[in-house]
Amino acid sequence: MHNYIICGMQFGDEGKGTVIDFLSNRYKASLIVRYGGGSQASHTVVMPNRKKHKFSQLGSGMFCPQTKTYLSSNMIVNLDELFKEVNSFSNKANRVEEQIVSQVYISPECYVVTPYHKLMNQLRELSKGNHRRGSLGTGVSEARYMEYISQETSKGGRVFRKYGHLGVQIKDFLEAKEKDSVDELVKKYMALQAYMMDFYNAHQKVIRENTPNFLKDKIEEDLYFLSMPTRYEQLAVSAYRKFVKNMDKYKSLCHTINDFECVHRDYIEGVQWQKSKTHAVKRALENYRVIYEGSQGVMIDKKYGIKPSTTELDTSINYALKFAKDTEEILKKNTNASFQAHNHKIGVARAYYARHGFGILPTEDSFLEDHLEDKSEENNYWNGTFRYGWFDAVLFRYAQKVNKVNELWLTCIDMLNGLEEVKVCNSYLYTGLIDPKFASLFDYYFDNEKNVIITNIRRNSTHLKGYLEYCTPIYISVHGWKRAILKTYTNDRFIEAHCQNYINLLSALTGVSITLVSYGPTREDKIFITRSQEK
């Protein structure tokens, strides 16, 4: 069993979608496990025939007909958006909706985004003015946050005692169907409405002051609509009816939604799921390939990211590792087959650094912003402008402390084509105060001129951003290249010499082997540097 665990090592937008499509096609992967994020994801995949889809909740390898998707309990699901995506994708993949949905499995533990979570997300952001986190306003992060603060044990349980639990899960819809009653679901929607209105009333003045003119009418309309006395009941009933309609329409999803083992059972085609077939099952499992698809990047993780511009979600590799281990134990128990699971922990990073909107980006450079343009990235009020910086080995080494990947896949190398000089940051010049907190957060030394040089970030802290604001990148410059990947008349591909030197430098500075380079948007625009992935 081979688990390919894909994680973003930067601020998101690393190109995870294109490498997952490549993996799924190359190894005929049977399953993609979405182990984090939600409908805010936009993993762009461009097919060789130039068909394009931005994968949101479906697995990014589903252009491959054999590949299924499992939405794990760490996902925040938007059911309306999920079925819209199914419709859109079915047209692009030239497959009927029923076929697409028959390949999608959802954990009943998934939390669900409601209209209240979405508007609450936007209100919370507007209440912060210039101190916004930079949330996309989709309600995904808000659903996780409201679930957390309304736990009975969270912060003394004050929110729980006043409103109850503010999380809505897939299993709430399933239980309503089983009981033939939406009463409990209605109560949750009523609590969400009460919480949202209490928050708005407490922050009304600052929200109005911070709402840009082009958003005012939309925010007011949504507030009016969602705050009406019986609206929570109408929304709960409507959501439930849509859920039931889709469950009835797509029988396969309904039958397998509570049984993750069915996902694996479907793979071992022609082999009975019983102990008498142990050897056949073992052989099948040894060739079983599962891709774990992460969302966003570790640098905006709730726990490990540089605050305050972080998400409320877990964007590290940790959940995927736990899920893979639990899956291995389930399969061994149910098949009585002794097999070895191999975890390929693959970090994905651009050949430079980039991020949307707010938040620190130490190597940000207006030169790159003038010369680079990623047409797949959208700029709007909620996610902000897409910003560019040189590769930051200091930040990457910190990310590696968290994710501990075995190898790095480097994307967007072609975006640097044509630059005469390419830079890499390997340390910072620090001009701020050296106090005990600083000394505990960084590895540093004094150079011959008594300048403070930071070489590594030891750990995260709410104070980290404050210190990084006093840092100036110290660069290593290398010769640029006109075209990263060259082809011979026989269509053989090789990496241009200066580009190869750059890749070698990144590998040396990060301490991680770069085993694959992506030089374009399609699965064909990938080249292995080593053959470790051939196994």
In short:
40% of the residues lie in helices and 19% in strands. The chain is built from 19 helices and 22 strands. Helix 4 (115-126) packs across helix 5 (140-149), helix 4 runs parallel beside helix 8 and helix 4 (115-126) crosses helix 9.
Can you offer a commentary on this structure?
This protein is of the alpha/beta class and 535 residues long. Helix content is 40%, strand content 19%. The protein is built from 19 helices and 22 strands. Helix 4 crosses helix 5 (140-149), helix 4 (115-126) packs parallel to helix 8 and helix 4 crosses helix 9 (213-227). It is globular, with a radius of gyration of 24 Å. Mean pLDDT is 89; it is low at 531-535.
Helix share, percent: 40-55%
Number of domain modules:
3
**Biggest sheet record:** 9 strands, mixed
**CATH homologous superfamily name of the largest domain?**
Adenylosuccinate Synthetase, subunit A, domain 1
Specify the CATH class of the largest domain: Alpha Beta
Q: Which architecture of the largest domain per CATH?
A: 3-Layer(aba) Sandwich
Distance linking N and C termini: 11 Å
Radius of gyration: 24 Å
What is the multimeric organization of the chains shown?
single chain
Low-confidence stretches: 531-535
Mean pLDDT: 89
CATH topology-level fold name of the largest domain = Adenylosuccinate Synthetase, Chain A, domain 1
Give the percentage of residues in beta strands: 15-25%
- Spatially, the strands of the biggest sheet line up as 7-5-2-9-1-10-14-21-22
Which overall shape is indicated by the principal axes computed on the Cα atoms? Answer: globular
What is the count of DSSP helices, taking H or I runs of 4+ residues?
A: 19
Structural class: alpha/beta
Number of strands: 22
